[in-house]
Design goal:
Layout (H helix, E strand, L loop, with lengths): L4 E16 L4 E13 L11 E4 L2 H5 L6 E3 L2 E6 L7 E6 L3 E13 L11 E10 L7 E5 L5 E3 L8 E10 L2 E6 L5 E6 L1 E10 L2 H18 L10 H24 L9 H41 L1
Parallel strand pairs: 1-9, 1-10
Antiparallel strand pairs: 1-2, 2-7, 3-6, 4-8, 5-7, 6-7, 8-14, 11-14, 12-13
Helix pairs in contact: 2-3, 2-4, 3-4
Subcellular location: Cell membrane; Membrane
GO cellular component, one term: plasma membrane
Organism: Pristionchus fissidentatus
């Protein structure tokens, strides 16, 4: 009987990383703890709590049908033994924990990239039981905890918040019909801030230096046409090549990112240096032409 059946849940995130911007996914290794009261599991054993870590015994018991709603893939750790344990108290309180490694999807907002902040979520929901049948709630104290030794090369973790995402979901009944139901949903919100150091060294400083190199042509003799043309085109090609490399690891979004604006401004300044040379060269040739004509008339 699943009428008003209540289940409590908590996470301990062991590791998080491998952010793939193109695929908009990241990997997380976590322990999921669940607890519920099942009157059918009451016992009078001499042991106050019975430990079950045998898979066959576990498979014969009722377990919540929870799944990670926004996971691309998940696998349960089984090295060196299946990573789970199940405790049953005398009053029928069941505590079940397992370890899983999941690839979680996260929709990235890259408008401010690489000075962006991202909000990623881990959503857990019952697959078949509606909220009237199975109500899932966070543990009262510290339901989502993080390994303090986690260090991300690309992001810093601002905070992790437990939230609820209860809502109406649709599920199929037959090929041409479906029903909707209200389901309990838990959501662990991970707030991330991108570290600027990598992009500062790999993007901003190199492109800024290329623009400054293009300004060297202003100090080259205007009559040294091959040198000025070579320098201008070399900086333009270098900037274009570097810009293509910067965009290689990012998804092809339909809006301009902050890095695109910076790159566009750098490209504009290099192009202006090339236009300046063309204007000066054209003006110089006209002056020489007029000087030659004036000299002939004087003679």
């Amino acid at each position: 009987n699943f009428s008003h059946f209540q289940l409590h849940l908590g996470f301990f995130i062991e590791s998080i990383g491998n952010f793939r911007s193109q695929e908009m996914t990241f990997d997380v290794d976590l322990y999921m703890y669940t607890s519920w009261l099942d009157p059918r599991m009451t016992h009078n054993s001499s042991e106050e709590v019975i430990l079950i870590n045998d898979r066959k015994a576990r498979d014969q018991m009722w377990l919540p049908d929870l799944y990670f709603a926004n996971a691309r893939s998940c696998s349960f750790q089984e090295v060196t033994v299946p990573n789970f344990n199940l405790f049953i108290a005398r009053n029928g309180l069941v505590s079940y924990s397992l370890r899983a490694t999941c690839s979680i999807s996260c929709s990235l907002d890259l408008v401010n990239y690489p000075m962006d902040k991202q909000h990623c979520f881990i959503r857990v929901i019952s697959y078949a039981h509606t909220r009237e049948q199975l109500r899932v709630r966070w543990f009262a104290e510290d339901p989502v905890r993080l390994n303090n030794e986690i260090g991300l090369p690309e992001f810093t973790i601002d905070k992790i918040q437990p939230n609820y995402c209860d809502g109406t979901y649709r599920y199929a009944i037959s090929e041409r019909s479906y029903r909707t139901g209200n389901f309990s949903c838990l959501m662990a919100s991970i707030h991330l801030e991108r570290a600027l150091g990598y992009n500062l060294v790999q993007s901003y400083i190199p492109t800024g230096l290329i623009v400054m190199i293009s300004w060297v042509s202003f100090f080259i003799d205007r009559r040294a046409v091959p040198a000025r043309v070579t320098l201008s085109f070399t900086t333009l090609v270098s900037l274009t090549t570097l810009g293509n490399g910067l965009r290689y690891d990012l998804p092809q979004v339909s809006y301009a990112k902050a890095l695109d604006l910076w790159y566009g401004a750098c490209l504009f300044f290099v192009f202006l240096a090339l236009i300046e040379f063309a204007a000066v060269n054209s003006y110089m040739r006209k002056c020489e032409k007029y000087a030659s004509v004036s000299k002939r008339q004087t003679c």
